[in-house]
Write a structure and sequence with these properties.
The structure is a homodimer.
Chain A lengths: L9 H20 L4 E3 L6 H5 L32 H11 L6 E3 L4 H15 L14 E6 L3 H9 L3 E8 L2 E2 L1 H10 L3 E6 L13 H8 L9 E5 L18 H7 L6 E6 L11 E4 L2 H14 L5 H11 L2 H30 L5 E3 L8 E5 L4 H10 L2 E3 L16 E4 L6 H30 L1
């Protein structure tokens, strides 16, 4: 099994293929339905936050620290204690934070929409410009790319390295082209690789010299708290502080939420940014709403009490997720190591593992898996416009299925990888012959 | 006291003024701080919904009727049972409804933002047009006017009548001018008059023939359930059905929320609209978020059970608000009737009473009240750009203060009305002399 497929003879490969096809027919006959397409928490994880449903009851005092009745209108920036909790979570000063509703994606969308209609800090609204471009470290998060695409912004892929986006390219592009207005980043336990930006990468981000005065880094720190291990963790330099040190305090919009800490859809989201940017956000927000859900903010604060409570809570998430991530990695190792038909990341946190298949195989693998009852994220989804030029990248989302289902799904996945890869090698040999 | 001020001699008026000034000095010395500026529910009203804080606890099954776990991601349109409850509340088919987050104002803002950037049903995005105008039945809701103003849309006042907006003017303007793209309406227990659009007004709205194909009625039915009396209630024709009957199914966006039913800031908002419009809303929403807070939707449904539960609940609100509205009307009657220095509405529901002062007096009255410790909504606030050409309209918001405070505040208010009016009459007489 440790012989690389490319080193095997055509006869050996055909024999292997025949055997794999028998296995495939068998699993197909089982009629499984396993969904690994989205980064959703599993039920066991959701159960961890059920206590949040009873920290408030009909006799609770819903007055927050500054004396405001959380049930009523008002408090555009969010209640003080929630800003403090999320300040600790995001490693930012509470005064630099606005608490939003249930979705940081919504805040990011609204931010693009805001600069589209009203511009950044007095600059021309993007809707008035002939062309607006955005850098998309790729593979990346499909919903990020979807937002800029929806506004007609041109998404430009930038290669990811194990250290983060290729900063030589990023620096060059933003310095040369004033129509490049932003970049999407998931800097910690990135979607889909699960890698974290190196210290040097963050420092270079903070020192970018964009041609556009209204260029902004969209820093989606979605997985800041989402470690798998207690000691073996990635560390990310805090970007706001670094930008300030570098003399670029207004360069970044930072986003986070508790969606994968408490309940997706019923968490609280937040931004952290400089006072100048904050003014833009608040002017917009003051027309958009009278305030976000303060009762839910209070519920979160009373549930966690403080950041230690949240850290403890995240340890419980890790206990559920660690075996799943390890099972995926183990199966990939067992079934594929040495075959030289793909590589994969081994993240210390986050929600995803990235599999890079042989070029030209990703779509076929995902389609084969689908026919055997395993739904993966669409091949290409991690690329702008869904177009992966190498047809290589596949996002693995291990969180939602139970361990048994996950194991079955991954065995089917590796089977599909092997079949597709052999077929590809055989096709290539025929083409040459 | 029943002699009209205009019928009194200058000596009589001066004597009256001197007496009123003594009273004013007295109340000023009390150093009161009473806020009647916003339409906020009072604490007693908020207490009515505390039961909602415990319909869900740590042992609750948070699965909704279609089997979805409300704690997790998904369900863009809202859970079925919430669409049914709000369907009954809004008198619309659940399938024509999308449940949003905590604020209908936010939905209205996002709707303007959406048509600004992406247009209405394939028409040119409004940001690409040279001029966009909106009709603003006036006096009206300041936050509505603020949204369109924020996008650079030209707000055009249209006079309100006791039947609703002056439909002769509305029909003429929308037929003549294709740059008029919408109209703000609070059709039931309007802000600030508390009047409801007549059957004829609604029918004429449904039969509008706007020059602009992308003209939409922004129908903010904020007070649909907010009656003060059990039998003596306004009835509003349901606009979506009426538009459909009139062959204009796509003419209206209808908004509502539970903000003043449960908790402002922690309620659920919704739109109801035609399938064509719905497609626009959902395309946008699918990029904006993965879904709104379904746990809060479930909380609302489990708390009310059904529309009967909500109607019962609104009766309790009415029991709290009725004495307040009646106290305001009683004091206005007692202190001002016959003086011919102002008129006021006598609503059967909603959150406001509208006071029309003698022209040129509103700002002075509000400023005088402020100096005696009573904060009213700014004079002019109910007009586009805050400019009331007559300086006459003042919004009275009786809901938030307790009855004792409200009584004090209203006595101060009528005192200020009388002082300002006498001074105005005396000034006018001097000017003529």
């Amino acid at each position: 099994m440790t012989k690389a497929y490319s080193q095997m003879t055509t006869e050996e490969l055909n024999a292997e293929l025949a055997e794999l096809r028998v296995q495939y027919k068998k699993v197909q006959a089982l009629g499984m339905h396993l969904d690994m397409s989205r980064g959703k928490p599993c039920q066991e994880q959701l159960d961890l936050s059920m206590g949040m449903m009873e920290v408030l009851d009909s006799t609770s005092d819903l007055t927050c620290e500054d004396g405001m009745d959380c049930r009523n209108y008002g408090q555009l920036t969010g209640i003080r204690e929630a800003r403090e909790l999320l300040g600790d979570m995001m490693e930012n000063n509470p005064k630099d934070i606005i608490i939003y509703g249930n979705s940081s994606l919504n805040v990011m969308f609204d931010t693009i929409s805001r600069v589209w209609t009203h511009g950044v800090m007095g600059n021309t609204p993007w809707c008035k410009l002939d062309e607006v471009k955005f850098l998309c470290p790729t593979p990346g998060y499909d919903r990020h790319f979807g937002i800029t695409e929806f506004f007609g912004i041109k998404n430009i892929p930038v290669p990811m390295t194990p250290e983060g986006p290729d900063m030589d390219i990023v620096e060059k592009l933003v310095a040369e082209d004033a129509s490049i207005k932003g970049i999407w980043c998931v800097p910690k336990y990135s979607n889909p690789q699960g890698i974290s930006y190196s210290d040097e990468t963050v420092r270079r981000f903070a020192r970018l010299e964009p041609a556009a005065p209204d260029f902004r880094i969209f820093w989606d720190n979605a997985y800041g708290m989402h470690h798998l291990y207690d000691h073996h963790q990635d560390h990310l330099i805090e970007i706001l502080a670094e930008c300030k040190r570098a003399g670029n305090p207004d360069l970044v919009y930072k986003f986070a939420s508790t969606s994968k800490i408490t309940f997706p859809g019923s968490g609280i989201a937040a931004i952290a940014t400089s006072p100048n940017n904050m003014e833009d956000f608040l002017t917009y927000l003051s027309h958009q709403t009278i305030g976000h859900d303060k009762v839910n903010q209070l519920r979160h604060v009373r549930f966690f009490k403080d950041i230690h409570g949240m850290v403890e809570h995240m340890r419980k998430h890790a206990d559920i997720l660690r075996p799943k991530f390890e099972a995926v990695i183990d199966i990939l190792n067992e079934d594929l190591e040495g075959l030289e038909i793909g590589s994969w990341t081994k993240p210390l946190g986050g929600y995803f593992i990235m599999f890079s298949a042989m070029p030209g195989c990703a779509k076929d693998i995902v389609s084969r898996a689908k026919k055997a009852g395993v739904t993966m994220t669409n091949a290409g989804a991690t690329w702008p416009y869904g177009m992966d030029p190498q047809d290589s990248d596949i996002r693995i989302a291990p969180t939602y299925p139970c361990l048994a289902d996950l194991t079955n799904a991954m065995r089917i996945f590796t089977l599909c990888v092997r079949i597709s890869s052999i077929k590809k090698i055989l096709r290539d040999r025929e083409a040459i012959a």
